[in-house]
Structures are given as structure tokens and as C-alpha cells.
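Backbones bend. To wit:
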Amino acid sequence: MLMSAYFSPVKSISIWALGSAPAVLLVVSLIALDNVGGERFRIADVAPGYVCDGAAPRVCLAEGTTRPLKPLAKGLAEQAGMLSQLGIQVPDTFYQEVPGVPAKLDAGLFIFTVDEVNASDISADRIASFLAMPAACPAYFSPTTPPVKALRAQGLIAMGLFERSSASSTFAQVAPGSGSADPVQGWVTSNAWNEWAKATYPKLKSCDLDSIDLPF
């Protein structure tokens, strides 16, 4: 259970807790009220506000930061379709990171830069990087050593998706597997990337990060 709390002079306690069901984020506010014979508590459920668009995957952004919602949903659907064609299952929903709110463990995560929060559009390479994070694994937020293999795997997933997207001119010029001046670029446009992605994306999605194998 992930939990944080704050205490105020009026004896209020706000607890953000990840409920027993992994997808359920429960926000419980307990307000202690002075009363004769002891204290009573009034309980109110408050959920973070999200606005969503799209389907499979659905895109959910925090209320007040929804300007890029529709272009993001459109771009994510296009690139997720590439994974689906390979038989790779993507998360049903991607949520924007909200400070102070524990991330949903069974959903993808958007971590926006300051400029992206109010942008009218999101670039295709950034959309690819979002799709390459299909789960908010606790290891990503650990104060100790970051999961280097997983981060490198995310980069290769994102690069392969972007090179295959309509925003990239490279894929139209370099036939898959035909070779490239950049060996990594040549690999991410090859069938070898397809097979590696099919084995690796489920591990990113299930947070089985230690078992990830890198191609080089």
C-alpha cells in the first residue's frame, strides 16, 4: 500500500491509498470533529479528476491539462496499432502523472515536460516514448539504482515505433532489414526488432524488468 498523509491544525488527515484492487485508486479524507464524549470522523471519497478520450488504448489527462488530449489519443492509437499487428497487447488506458497521486500499476503512464502540459500537440517521438512505458513499475521511482536495462529497452521500443510512424521519413527511405548507416536504426526497422519487441514489451508491461534481454 502506498500512502502519504498530511496533518493540519484542524485535525484533518488526507490519505492517498492504493486499494486492494490494483486499478483502484482510493482517496480517503478523514476529518476529525470535536464532539462531546470523543471525536467522530466524517469520511468522503475524492478521486483525482481525469478527462479521457480514445479507446484501446484510452488516454486520460488530469483536469485542467487537457489541451493535447485529442492529438495525443490519435497519435497513441496509430502507434499502438503497430504493436497490435505484432500480437502485442498494450494497456487499456494510459494516465497522466499527477504529483502526489500513486500511479496505477496496471496502466500506462504519461510523464509530461513542463512545455508539454499546455501544448496543443505532442510530437510522434514523445508519443512513442509514452507507449514504451506500459506500466508505472515501482522500480522506475526507486531512490536507489534505476533499472538501466528497462530504460534502454524503452528507448529501443520507442525508436522502433517512431521509425515506423507516419511522422518519420526514415522508414519510407530505408526498407526493413536493408541496412542503414546507423546500425541501431537499421535494426529497429528490421524483423529482428519485431521479434524482440514481442518478447520484451510484455515484460515492461508486467514489470518483469530483470528478465529483459537487450539485443546489444
